[in-house]
């Protein structure tokens, strides 16, 4: 009886290790746009102000997926959404400076 319990514990442990490993490698295989040094400033603003609704991988949560937003909206439209807000998205014109909004819009527009 004792042996079986130990075996069970061991297999749970092994299972835990295996799942931890597989989720780790999956994350590593996805290129993270937020680590692109060319857009560091915009990515930092995103991490501060947008990540809570649009998710760490930009796939969306409360707000929509922004991973390829540049193929549906241009820079001008994106900066309008950020500045004025839209639906459930708050307006950022009082929170961010205009040049910060432009930087975010330029970066997002480049994500095709
Ligand atoms: C409180 C949650 C929230 C935050 C914070 C937020 N958004 Fe949004 N965002 C939304 C929602 C909800 C929508 C969808 C609005 C709609 O279409 O009605 C949206 C839409 C957008 C869109 C338009 C997407 C499309 O396909 O039309 C862009 C671009 C965008 N957000 C960028 C940003 C950026 C950049 C930031 C940070 C400065 C940000 N959002 C912060 C919730 C949020």
Automatic annotation (TrEMBL):
Signal sequence residues: 1-27
InterPro entries assigned to the protein according to its UniProt record, in alphabetical order: Cyt_c-like_dom (IPR009056), Cyt_c-like_dom_sf (IPR036909), Cyt_c_BACSU-c550-type (IPR012218), Cytochrome_c550/c551-like (IPR051811)
Keyword line: Electron transport, Heme, Iron, Metal-binding, Signal, Transport
Domain annotation Cytochrome c: ranges: 37-112
Domain of life, source organism: Bacteria
PANTHER family per record: CYTOCHROME C-553-LIKE, MENAQUINOL-CYTOCHROME C REDUCTASE CYTOCHROME B_C SUBUNIT
Full protein name: Cytochrome c
Native source organism of the sequence: Ferviditalea candida
